[in-house]
Design a protein that fits this description.
The protein has ten helices and twelve strands. It is of the alpha+beta class. The chain folds into three domains: 166 residues, no CATH class; 88 residues, Helix Hairpins, CATH 1.10.287; 147 residues, Histidine kinase-like ATPase, C-terminal domain (Heat Shock Protein 90), CATH 3.30.565.10. The strands form three sheets. It has a five-stranded mixed β-sheet. Strands 7-9-10-12-11 form a five-stranded mixed β-sheet. The protein has a two-stranded antiparallel sheet with strand order 6-8. It is rod-shaped and about 165 Å long. β1 and β2 form a beta hairpin. Bound molecules: adenosine-5'-triphosphate and magnesium ion. Magnesium ion binds next to α8.
């Protein structure tokens, strides 16, 4: 827990806000896409309506033998009703025209051919009308109700444009209304279903992280079966585990402190006893002479035990300083410190190449090797029959990225009880006078450096393999 807990964003800068913006954006986008076909359809039906009036007028024209004989005010009324300047009716090669009493001479005539009504030309026509300036005249051409007849209507384009703009404005208003209502409804739904639970999770995480030892802050998950439900239950489980672990850790730390105190006093008492036993050993009594050495060794062991427990307790868990180090000198030094070099009954063989470099903390690796060599020496020394010459072999196998270092001996092999609790502090020792810390410390140190240590397969004796990252250079 190094970095600070993040703060919850305000309700309007968080998820909800993004959600509303997205919903409104998508709806408006859809509306824009839908707008073009719909304005085209509007223009088309507007033109159709005008054409229909034209067709009705054409029928009137058709029924009178001479159009010129019609009263002027009747034709004017007809044209005004259609909003037209003039109507032309063509059939069987003949054409008839009615126009206003004061004829209008149009300057810019645009033709809308109602016989061509595919969507693309409708949309194109609609856009063209909206973008055009005022003052144009529209010529609507379409079929009449009789075979092979054609009706043409001339009228100003202004009313069409005005109606189309009105229609567009209504569409914009309706779209905004729909977007607002949909966004609101979706927002309420999505908030209830997703955002509120997510906010609850976020709140809970922030609170729990600040006070993980407070069991009241452990999330009570809902019954939901979906992914949010899973997250809630997993988070609750995780928080319970963290809570339990923290409590356990505190208890262990308290216990450790007590043990350290007892151990410290015990060691002082043992040291006094050792002084006494040294004096007792000088007495001439043959019985005392026989028992005293055992008393002295026992006390020595007890003191060494107390000392190593104290050292383990004091262990500073400083982070390793990883750097390229040559393996061979490390091995040689550790072998010397563990008294396996120049040993009277053990031969030591180091086959590690002098050039081999690993990425490790030199001091930590020295302690790891020291523990392994000491274990091997102790095992070999304890073996009574030295029929095959006692030997400790160190070898290294370099891979592309990793180096495997093996420490092997031809001793009695690992006892079953040691195997069961391998690498567990205080549990692994079966040796009298052993603390059971050597392998546990070795594992802790190797893993801190990003490596692995494990028991290797060997037919005789014991072999430990350590895998370390290779120096990339
Ligand atoms: N090379 C080995 N051959 C045989 N047995 C071994 C070997 N290495 C370790 N062991 C066994 O594993 C046990 C655990 O070793 P570990 O180093 O953890 O504890 P220890 O040697 O008993 O005590 P400490 O190292 O703390 O003084 C030893 O007691 C020993 O029985
Ligand atoms: Mg040991």
């Amino acid at each position: 827990m190094t970095d600070h807990p993040s703060a919850l964003p305000s309700r309007f800068s968080g998820l909800s806000n993004k959600l509303i913006a997205t919903i409104i954006g998508v709806i408006l986008l859809v509306e824009v896409v839908v707008y073009f076909p719909s304005i085209a359809g509007y223009r088309d039906s507007w033109l159709q309506d005008r054409l229909r009036v034209g067709v009705v007028a054409a029928r009137v024209l058709d029924s009178v033998p001479d159009v010129m004989s019609l009263p002027r005010n009747l034709t004017d009324r007809l044209l005004n009703a259609a909003g037209a300047y003039a109507i032309v009716y063509r059939r069987e090669g003949q054409s008839q025209l009615i126009e206003l009493t004061d004829p209008v001479t149009p300057d810019l005539v645009i033709t809308a051919d109602m016989r061509q009504r595919d969507l693309a030309s409708q949309i194109g026509g609609a856009i063209e009308v909206m973008l055009a300036g005022p003052g144009r005249t529209l010529r609507i051409v379409g079929e009449g109700d009789l075979d092979e007849s054609l009706v043409e209507i001339l009228m100003p384009e202004g009313p069409l444009r005005r109606d189309m703009f009105d229609y567009s404005r209504n569409i914009v208003l309706v779209s905004l209304g729909i977007a607002a209502i949909t966004a609101f409804v979706l927002y309420v739904l999505v908030s209830r279903l997703f955002i509120d639970p997510v906010l609850r999770l976020a709140d809970n995480m922030l609170a729990f992280r600040k006070a993980p030892e407070n069991a009241a802050l452990i999330l009570s998950p809902s019954e939901r079966a979906d992914e949010i439900g899973i997250v809630e239950r997993e988070l609750a489980a995780m928080e319970s585990e963290i809570f339990a672990l923290l409590r356990q850790r505190r208890h262990l730390a308290d216990l450790g402190l007590a043990v350290a105190k007892i151990n410290h006093d015990l060691r002082n008492m043992l040291t006094s006893a050792q002084l006494l036993s040294d004096q007792v050993a000088t007495l001439d009594d043959p019985k005392v002479q026989r028992l005293a050495p055992r008393l002295v060794t026992t006390l020595d062991r007890a003191i060494a035990f107390a000392q190593s427990v104290m050292d383990y307790g004091r262990e500073a868990n400083a982070a390793p300083q990883l750097a390229p180090v040559a393996l061979r000198p490390l091995v040689e030094d550790a072998a010397f410190d563990a008294r396996v070099l120049n040993h009277p009954s053990i031969s030591f063989e180091d086959t590690v190449s002098p050039e081999l470099m690993v990425l490790a903390d030199g001091a930590m690796m020295a302690r790891v090797l020291l523990n392994l060599f000491k274990n091997a020496r102790e095992a070999l020394e304890a073996e009574s029959a030295a029929s095959p010459p006692n030997q400790i072999t160190v070898s290294a196998l370099a891979g592309d990225r990793e180096v495997t270092l093996s420490v092997a001996d031809n001793g009695p092999g690992l006892p079953a009880r040691a195997r069961e609790h391998l690498f567990v502090a205080f549990e692994g020792s079966v040796r009298s006078g052993g603390t059971g810390l050597g392998l546990a410390i070795a594992r802790e140190l190797v893993e801190a450096q990003g490596g692995r240590i494990f028991l290797g397969d060997s037919e005789i004796g014991t072999r430990f393999d350590i895998v370390l990252p290779r120096d990339p250079a």
